[in-house]
């Protein structure tokens, strides 16, 4: 192996390694769905009604979601909001053998962070050419097309989900270091402990479940309401047009600066996690909260954004 190839090998290997596709956990995705729903309800009720009708044409509306849609204890508004919440988590629910709708590489993008070389942002797309940015655009085009409503409903689920995943810093970042020469797989190999008495876990899973672990309707909806109050839409930065590429760069910068603490955060391996700094969770939780709130508001903005009356997603009305 030549010296040049030896230098490139870790980077080539990284591009072939899968990164965890959990993103935020299911309850957190449900909260993002609820925030998106209420934002649309306040600003674009007609467009929301169209989206709800579209989701009711989803293939799982008669199977996986049927009990929820028949629940007599829920109001019609609760059912519709719950439908958005289930749609946002659906791409994680279908991680099943031979499920044709499951696309593991769609959930992330690998921007490389190598502290020893300074900041580097390299998009190492997989051989299939499918990453979260490409998947988002693919599904956006389906929603704008003349496809069947069932296909558009599936695309809408992916948009709601990927618009959430891209806000999770470790879904855009892979750390290269002497400890992880082939990459830490978005924090999945980066072993930590919250305290000495806690079991070892990985950094990625810590971020995934930082806000909520209970996936009930009430718990996820309550988290959404809390985040809407703490991080209201009016306080979010405004762009003329939604831009998922810019969102992914934001997440990468947060991962570099905060998740990995500019390369100073220490990792263990195997079952020997390194205890996190005592202020880590208290510092990172507000960041996670803000990213989740921003995901919901940004998705709502995209779903109602109008260009020549067709919208960012091509939705009239």
UniProtKB/TrEMBL annotation:
Domain of life of the native organism: Bacteria
Pfam family of the protein (one): S1-P1_nuclease
GO molecular function, one term: hydrolase activity, acting on ester bonds
Keyword vocabulary terms for this entry: Disulfide bond, Endonuclease, Glycoprotein, Hydrolase, Metal-binding, Nuclease
Entry-linked InterPro entries: PLipase_C/P1_nuclease_dom_sf, S1/P1nuclease
Any one of the GO BP annotations: DNA catabolic process
Protein name listed in UniProt: S1/P1 nuclease
Protein's organism: Larkinella arboricola
Lineage start: Bacteria, Pseudomonadati, Bacteroidota, Cytophagia, Cytophagales
């Amino acid at each position: 192996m030549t010296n040049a190839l030896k230098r490139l090998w870790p980077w080539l290997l990284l591009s072939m390694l899968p990164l965890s596709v959990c993103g935020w956990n299911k309850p957190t995705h449900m909260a993002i769905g609820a925030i998106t729903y209420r934002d649309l309800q306040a600003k674009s009720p007609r467009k929301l009604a169209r989206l709800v009708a579209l989701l009711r044409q989803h293939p799982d509306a008669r199977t996986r979601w049927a009990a929820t849609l028949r629940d007599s204890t829920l109001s019609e508004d609760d059912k519709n909001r719950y439908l958005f919440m289930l749609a946002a988590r659906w791409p994680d629910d279908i991680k099943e053998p031979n499920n044709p709708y499951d696309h593991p590489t769609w959930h992330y993008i690998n921007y490389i962070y190598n502290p020893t070389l300074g900041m580097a942002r390299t998009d190492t797309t997989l051989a299939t050419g499918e990453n979260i940015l490409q998947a988002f655009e693919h599904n956006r085009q389906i929603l704008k097309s003349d496809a069947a409503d069932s296909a558009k409903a599936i695309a809408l689920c992916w948009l709601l989900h990927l618009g959430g995943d891209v806000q999770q810093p470790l879904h855009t970042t892979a750390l290269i270091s002497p400890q992880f020469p082939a990459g830490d797989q978005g924090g999945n190999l980066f072993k930590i402990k919250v305290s000495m008495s806690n079991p070892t876990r990985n950094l990625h899973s810590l971020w995934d479940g930082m806000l909520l672990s209970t996936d009930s309707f009430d718990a996820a909806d309550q988290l959404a309401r809390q985040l809407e109050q703490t991080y209201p839409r009016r306080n979010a930065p405004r762009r003329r047009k939604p831009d998922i590429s810019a969102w992914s760069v934001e997440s990468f910068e947060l991962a570099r600066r905060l998740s990995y603490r500019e390369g100073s955060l220490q990792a263990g391996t195997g079952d020997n996690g390194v205890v996190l700094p005592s202020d880590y969770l208290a510092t990172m939780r507000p960041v996670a909260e803000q990213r989740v709130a921003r995901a919901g508001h940004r998705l709502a903005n995209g779903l109602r954004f109008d260009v020549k009356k067709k919208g960012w997603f091509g939705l009239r009305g």
